[in-house]
Design brief:
There is one protein chain. This protein has one domain: Translation Initiation Factor IF3 (2-Layer Sandwich). Helices cover 34% and strands 40% of the residues. The chain contains two helices and four strands, in the order ββααββ. Strands 1-3-4-2 form a four-stranded mixed sheet. The radius of gyration is 18 Å and the shape is elongated. A hairpin with a 3-residue loop joins strand 3 and strand 4. The longest helix is centred in the middle third of the chain and has 24 residues. By secondary structure, it is an alpha+beta fold.
Length: 109
């Protein structure tokens, strides 16, 4: 599955636009992770506990978006973007979204 943040995929022709597609993940840190991150924030710098959480959550959201695109019959997602928000004080929502399409393969070289 081709996933791109661009409007067009170089060398491919859009055969059919299937519509918007998204993958949503809501996660929270464990109590231990929140305490460790809170202590680390006192010293300043990167809070790796949260960095890893966000990276894993984004990957998971992309995977869900791809699965939803496959269910629609797509072989690509164009204009992929992320959105995120906080839910309460301990949870975050990450959404990966884009346009599910069917692409014709590029012509032989």
């Amino acid at each position: 599955m081709l996933v791109t943040t661009t409007e067009k995929a170089e060398g491919y022709q859009v055969k059919q636009v299937l519509g918007h597609v998204f993958g949503v993940v809501v996660r929270s840190r464990s109590l231990v992770g929140n305490v460790a991150a809170g202590l680390r924030s006192l010293a300043g710098g990167e809070i790796t506990e949260y960095t890893h959480l966000v990276e894993d959550t984004r990957r998971h959201a992309i995977d869900r978006m791809i699965e939803n695109a496959k269910l629609m019959g797509a072989n690509a997602v164009l204009m992929m973007r992320f959105d995120s928000s906080e839910m309460g004080q301990t949870m975050s929502e990450v959404v990966a979204y884009g346009t599910a399409v069917r692409l014709d393969p590029p012509p032989p070289a």
